[in-house]
Design the sequence.
């Protein structure tokens, strides 16, 4: 790192599928990937959508041939949250060590990730990559300590399940809650409790309230519900996240403006945005 400050960077903010079109250049078209770098240089990655490819290129350039260590926390295994793994350059470096975490119980994590790189879907099998890989399935409310960071998982309401993460870095708190649909009392309370007093809340806001009426049960929420969570939890800043593929830059600007009318510190996340913690 260039300085001793912890930071957060968005590498992918889109939901469902990449949208690399000219209409999306401001906010970006890569799917979910967020990097948190702590003051003691722990690299914590939230999700491995297509945005993780650019992150991998940046890590390789930064390392200048030295070994890379990274911790990748997956919310779930839907395609847009893991599709970048085969193109994440550090997995092919024999000096590198990558640890994968998931809160989804059941099928072994390693077996799940190997599936998308099995023949005939990809020419290189996941068990053939050179990097050392570790796999850990974590339990609800289990605390993972990585240097100065503490990561606490919690359940979210989403088809086939999803996990949110509360990341405590020094005095700062970041809450990552993408792929979440409001309406399940237990999961709603999980999120509000995790987001209490958060400095940054990254929250699923794929739909407008009108769009949500025709997308109930799809596992995603609205910018209005994200605002309500932020207000009730006393979060300092809200980042709208997991933007719908049909929402181009103009639509996202309107959504951000609507959200700010209800919560002054609401921001529509865009690729490349860096927040110093």
Sequence:
């Amino acid at each position: 790192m260039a300085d001793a400050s912890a930071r957060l960077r968005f590498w992918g903010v889109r939901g469902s599928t990449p949208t690399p079109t000219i209409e999306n250049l401001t906010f970006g078209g890569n799917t979910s990937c967020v990097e948190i770098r702590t003051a003691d240089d722990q690299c914590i990655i939230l999700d491995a959508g297509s945005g993780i490819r650019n992150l991998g290129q940046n890590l390789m350039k930064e390392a200048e041939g030295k070994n890379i260590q990274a911790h990748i926390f997956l919310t779930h295994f839907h395609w847009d949250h893991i599709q970048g793994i085969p193109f994440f350059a550090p997995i092919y470096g024999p000096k590198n060590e990558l640890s994968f975490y998931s809160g989804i119980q059941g099928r072994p994590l390693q077996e799940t990730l190997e599936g998308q790189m099995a023949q005939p879907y990809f020419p290189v099998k996941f068990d053939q990559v050179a990097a050392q890989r570790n796999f850990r399935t974590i339990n609800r409310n289990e605390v993972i300590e990585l240097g100065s960071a503490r990561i606490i998982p919690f359940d979210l309401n989403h088809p086939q399940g999803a996990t949110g993460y509360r990341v405590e870095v020094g005095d700062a708190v970041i809450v990552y809650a993408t792929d979440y649909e409001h309406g399940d009392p237990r999961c709603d309370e999980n999120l509000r409790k995790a987001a209490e007093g958060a400095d940054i809340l990254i929250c699923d806001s794929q739909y407008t309230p009108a769009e949500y009426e025709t997308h109930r049960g799809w596992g995603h929420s609205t910018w209005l519900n994200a605002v309500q969570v932020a207000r009730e939890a006393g979060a300092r800043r809200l980042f709208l996240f997991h933007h719908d593929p049909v929402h181009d830059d103009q639509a996202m600007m309107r959504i951000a403006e609507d959200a700010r009318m209800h919560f002054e510190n609401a921001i529509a996340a865009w690729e490349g945005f860096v927040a110093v913690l």
Observations:
- The chain has a mean pLDDT of 96.
